[in-house]
Write a structure and sequence with these properties.
With 465 residues, the chain is α/β, with parallel strands linked by helices. 36% of the residues lie in helices and 14% in strands. The chain is built from 14 helices and 13 strands. The strands form two sheets. It has an eleven-stranded mixed beta sheet with strand order 1-3-2-5-7-6-12-13-10-8-9, sandwiched between helices. It has a two-stranded antiparallel ribbon with strand order 4-11. Strand 12 (414-421) and strand 13 (427-433) form a beta hairpin. The longest helix has 23 residues, at 348-370. The chain is globular and about 70 Å long.
């Protein structure tokens, strides 16, 4: 068995017992990358020279790694070399891990299919005619097929959990502030969080222990408070989200949620259905707020200080216009324009302030639910397979974020857990969400559920279908 098939925790244990070496792990990983990369196209860049010893970790290409490219999947930053490490990357290095490869993504993390990248389109290893999801599609595809042992992604509205579900991986989004965003290229600062894509909950828990905690470079960070960790599922209060506000959940997904609820109840959990009608406003709220923040954050990319600059222009105003027109793709331009519109005079109160009020309402409703339940379970994505869209302007792609964006709006921890395969052999994931800062508790509960299912932990063999 190739070492690339081992989990991160297994490999760390083997390294500690000297049952393998970092060179052997890397050799196995390189061989697997050579086998799969022509079909999946999960990576934007791979190291050309020697790398430091340690467990290799793939990193989404909007996270800074010193002396390596950080393109954000955009022409705007196609040649940008980061002069520093993100805090999460630095912490990994301090704990015997090394970055091996920057993974593909939707440009500036704006998209759900990983086809909005300037460089290439990543394919789902479970079926290469399907999308791996986005925007962390490269990280999910790499972990799914074994061309990465474990990976970092970023999650602004589901960008870790959605591709994890579509690719049969575990995808963990921490509470807002649990992991430093220093070194993560800003898209929507009040929503996004560095997250983890792995094959097992144990791997996510291990990496979360390493990268979480307070950071002087990020004022929003905190040390996670200690909560009582349940010894099992007995007595656990589970809320099953009423999804009647969405008519697009396919039968395989709905059945998986129902089966999990019954299995939890059989194992001693107290299961009830919860209804949060306000969640029907989540997607509209999310896109107004995230686009407003994007229009502000991406204003720095103007051709003056770094990144792409137009070759021909007559004055500085034309340089700005041409640089941004050439450097940004259609989806990024669309969101910048939407954000500028909702922040403009005459529309600020009607759109942005109303969205902020709705965000508070959704957060309050979720807090009320967690006063009566420990975990909310729901679909991650309404379908088990996602085709590539011929048009980037597809309302259904935006609407599909309905189950993941509430956790970002409220700053809650959430995890996508693979539980089964659909009728046509594609992975099915289920989302678990819990109260703010109960990250370690949520991971432990997810671990119990994973064990109850016998553990998914499958390597996709790259099916060209």
């Amino acid at each position: 068995m190739g070492l690339f098939r081992k989990t991160a925790t297994e490999l760390i244990d083997m390294l500690g017992k000297k049952l393998c070496s970092p060179e052997e792990i890397l050799s196995s990983l390189k061989k697997r990358i050579a086998e799969t990369e022509p079909y999946t196209k999960a990576y934007i860049t791979l190291p050309e020279g020697p790398i430091a010893d340690g467990l290799p970790v793939a990193v989404k290409d909007n996270i800074a790694v010193r002396c390596q490219k950080m393109t954000c999947g955009s022409k705007m930053l196609a040649d940008y070399i980061s002069p520093y490490d993100a805090t999460a990357v630095r912490k990994m290095a301090e704990n015997g891990m090394t970055v091996y490869g920057k993974t593909n993504m939707d440009e500036f993390a704006m998209g759900s299919t990983c086809q909005n990248s300037y460089f290439q389109t990543t394919c789902n290893p479970w079926g290469t005619s399907f999308s791996p999801g986005g925007s962390s599609g490269g990280s999910a595809a790499a972990v799914a097929c074994g061309s990465a042992i474990i990976a970092l992604g970023s999650d602004t509205g589901g960008s870790v959990r959605q591709p994890a579900a579509l690719c049969g991986c575990v995808g963990f989004k921490p509470s807002y502030g649990a992991v430093s965003r220093y070194g993560l290229t800003a898209f929507a600062s009040s929503l996004e969080q560095i997250g983890i894509i792995s094959r097992t909950v144990a791997d996510s828990s291990m990496l979360m222990d390493i990268i979480s905690g307070k950071d002087t470079h990020d004022a929003t960070t905190c040390e996670l408070p200690l909560y009582e960790i349940p010894a099992g599922l007995n007595g656990l209060r589970i809320g099953v989200l009423d999804t009647s506000f969405s008519r697009s959940v396919e039968a395989d997904i709905a059945q998986a949620v129902s089966d999990l609820a019954k299995l939890l109840e059989k194992n001693g959990a107290v299961v009830s259905t919860i209804s949060i009608p306000e969640l029907k406003y989540s997607v509209n709220t999310y896109y107004i707020i995230s686009s407003a923040e994007a229009s502000s954050n991406l204003s720095r990319f103007d051709g003056v200080r770094y990144g792409h600059r137009a070759a021909e222009y007559s004055d500085i105003e034309e340089m700005y216009e041409r640089t941004r027109s050439e450097g940004f793709g259609k989806e990024v331009k669309r969101r910048i324009m939407l954000g500028s519109f909702v922040l403009s005079e005459g529309y600020y109160d009607s759109y942005y302030m109303k969205a902020m009020s709705t965000r508070k309402l959704i957060s309050r409703k979720l807090d009320e639910c967690f006063a009566n339940c420990d975990v909310i379970i729901s679909p991650v994505y309404p379908v088990s397979r996602l085709g590539f869209s011929n048009s980037s302007l597809s309302r259904s792609l935006y609407d599909a974020d309905m189950f993941t964006v509430p956790a970002n709006l409220a700053g809650l921890p959430a995890i996508s857990l693979p539980v089964s395969l659909s009728a046509d052999g594609m992975p099915v994931g289920i989302q678990l969400m819990s109260a703010r800062y109960t990250d370690h508790r949520l991971l432990r509960i997810a671990g119990y559920i994973e064990k109850m299912y016998g553990g998914f932990n499958r390597i996709a063999e790259v099916k060209c279908r």
